[in-house]
Known about the structure:
By secondary structure, the protein is an alpha/beta fold. Helix content is 39%, strand content 15%.
Amino acid sequence: MSSKSIEALARENVRQLTPYQSARRLGGKGDVWLNANEYPTPVAFELTQQTLNRYPECQPEAVITRYAAYAGLNKDQVLVNRGADEGIELVVRAFCEPGQDAIMICPPTYGMYSVSAETIGVECRKVPTLANWQLDLPAMQAQLDGVKVVFVCSPNNPTGQVINPEDLKSLLEMTRDRAIVVADEAYIEFCPQATLTTWLQDYPHLVVLRTLSKAFALAGLRCGFTLANKPVIDLLLKVIAPYPLSTPVADIAAQALSEAGLTAMRGRVAEILRNRRELVSALQALPGVEQVYPSDTNYVLFKLSECSVVFKSLWDQGIILRDQSKQPGLGGCLRITIGTEAECQRVVTALNALSASITAE
């Protein structure tokens, strides 16, 4: 069977789909990786579970119990899944009828919302944010018919800012009895006061996504959480895989959520926030940097006059950033993950040298 005939067997929306361009798919060869919003150094764990001959629990008790305590929720409000990305897909699969319903997103934002919807055959309705990257509520309301799920990332990736809580309340009122609202809180550990988990008691259609990939320094573990009221969790349990977490993943996740693990996580957050302050100050002083945008996350978005030249030059030096210039409203913008103090200094030194060379020309 030829590759052409294999492609013909595929669903049309999959044939037309552009996959999400993750940091690893984009590649690059370097030793300063600041393009995937990861914690910059590895954290050591030792496996304690050796029963690999048995299937794991669908929802490992220790992981669920500890995350519920950490999030201030009941156990029946917590679902553990393969990263927040699986949570996105589960919500779309559970609530959207392919070829009939739609999701709504507000670009610029995280790209997997649209990819998950389009893979399943669900329309993705895009309502661009305002100039300050806050929600355009009138435009959202005008396009809400037929929308079953609204995704809002707060703090938003890649812009870095928290979405105005009053706007989120307005959105939740607007969608009551009409649609599920998913608040993606992948970066919430860097601004814990902004979480919406306490709102679950008032909004039965609210879903909150979380992950261990960022502040917990476990991007390679692929472990995330979907937080919602029990009726939503019960529906998601109908469509989740029978064994979403392997035994080693559940083992390490439970360790990360212990009291010692939570203390270590908060220490990492404090370190990243210190490095972020220093990096922002250094970037603001650089010639060619037009603006450094406020951030509530472990990354910073900044705009510069020679964006493509800078990106390629740093790439060639083994310093890998994320080019966001093709996203709506982000022309000339790069996103930089907050690395170690030494990594941040290396970026600043390279940018300084590049600015001097561009000026000399």
